[in-house]
Design a protein that fits this description.
The structure holds two protein chains of two kinds.
Chain A lengths: L1 H15 L3 H26 L5
Chain B lengths: L2 H7 L5 H16 L3 H4 L4 H20 L12 H11 L4 H8 L9 H28 L5
Helix pairs in contact in B: 2-7, 4-6, 4-7, 5-7
Classes of the chains: A mainly alpha, B mainly alpha.
């Protein structure tokens, strides 16, 4: 999940931002949200997993 | 001013630019990043090539399902379209995945997602190259 999130974040950062600093900020923010949502949804599904 | 006069006054459509944009789009689809490289957007070109390449390589290495044209149902057809989005890397994935897909394990299932995401991402990048060539995006 980390590798997937990192790759997608990098691609989105380069797609949507032009300046290097903006790209880095976007990539970091996007990666954080990917991980938070991924882990959050995982824990959200936990009560229904059995 | 009447409608006819407005149409006559409008600048002629730049067909050459449009054709170039389409060519960049197709090039970007066939080889990830090539559409941007032809426009000298080196950072984006290298990034898309590397990102799509890594996703395809890892996805195929995990023995993800690489869909064929004879899938049978709508999901398989959509998966095939997504996988085709990787352009030339589709053939690379076929070459890597000599043992065929194995989705009986979680790894194979993750690999399928990696391959589909690579394809959709490359289509997005090719579309961006098209828009950039038309002057709509920087």
């Amino acid at each position: 999940m980390l590798l997937f999130a990192l790759m997608i974040s990098i691609a989105f950062g380069f797609l949507s931002r032009r300046r290097p600093l903006d790209r880095v900020k976007y990539i970091a923010w996007s990666l954080l949200l990917f991980l938070l949502f991924g882990i959050g949804i995982g824990w959200g599904m936990y009560p229904f997993s059995r | 001013m009447t409608d006819e006069a407005q149409i006559a006054a409008a600048p002629p459509r730049d067909n050459k630019r449009e054709a170039r944009a389409i060519a960049f789009c197709v090039a970007g689809w066939l080889v990830p990043g090539l559409g941007h490289a032809l426009q000298k957007m080196w950072g984006r070109a290298i990034t898309f090539f590397a990102v799509v390449g890594v996703l395809v390589f890892v996805g195929a290495g995990m023995r993800g399902n690489l869909f064929n044209s004879d899938g049978g149902d709508a999901f398989a057809a959509l998966g095939y379209l997504a996988d085709l989005g990787t352009g030339g890397f589709y053939l690379l994935a076929k070459y890597i995945e000599v043992g065929g897909p194995d989705v009986s394990h979680a790894y194979g299932d993750y690999g399928t997602r990696f391959l589909a995401a690579a394809g959709v991402l490359n289509l997005l990048a090719a579309l961006h190259a098209y828009e950039a060539a038309r002057g709509r995006k920087a």
